[in-house]
Amino acid sequence: MCRRLLPRAFVLFAAAIAVAGCSSAGSSASGGGPVVVATTTQLADIARNVAGPEAKVEQILRPNTDPHEYEPRPGDAIAVSKAKVVLRSGGEVDSWLEGVLNQASSGARVVNVGAGVKLRGDDPHWWQDPQNAELATRAIASALAAADSKHAAAYRQRAEAYARKLRTLDGAIARCMGRLPASERRLVTNHDALEYFAHRYRVTVVGVVIPSLSTAAGASAGETAKLVKTIRREYVREIFPESSVPKGVEAAVAHEAGAKLGPALYADSLGPKGSPGATYLGSLRFNATAMADGFSGRPGSCRLH
To answer: What is the pLDDT of residue 165?
Structure first.
């Protein structure tokens, strides 16, 4: 879903690059380490855990931003023009990066982190499986080590420490979901963003409000009516909106189907600072807990620490 920039946006990008060009073509942070730009909130959080104080990580997408509908800003081009490494998630969620790279004329090494994980078809939401996040962590560590060999050992050590945290949480979520009967593990959410989570933890995706991998699509009246019937037939207790998508249709579907509207899950984006989903680990923990409570109808059925 790579959009062509409008003329006004083109002018803004050109101006941004001109300003960036007036400064030193900095590919290093103030402390001497590399500047790393990550497209998505998930990538940026994982990268910060690997980078530590040796590299500066900047992210393009802000918390609770829908990556499917994102329009690049002039500041994105400036950030990319100064980066030594650009981390992209891959697929449709950051296909808009191509335009930014073209306008920035960046010499940064672009690493498609999503190319090194276990993809399910053309579904770009790979981070919903923490086993993929572990693969991404190692890919990021390798990219930073190549860009800054002086601190290669530190990057790899932090990557290993973060990978251990991922494995611990992954095991806890698997045990939590495993305690619920298969008949309860039935998910309805906004769009097809949680198939990786569902596959990893044996959750059945009964349906989605927007039958697409992208929120840019829409649902017809017939599709919505069919979903309502499915929810009733499958006795789905709770429908989950998503934090980066405006609420409205989900509430109407829940009301019509006689289901409860659950808390918004962190699907396409992490949340703002101070929220339960401000970090990647936090988002997984919150989502799993919310789903377990909603699936079972028993609040507190899943305690993850």
So the answer is: 98
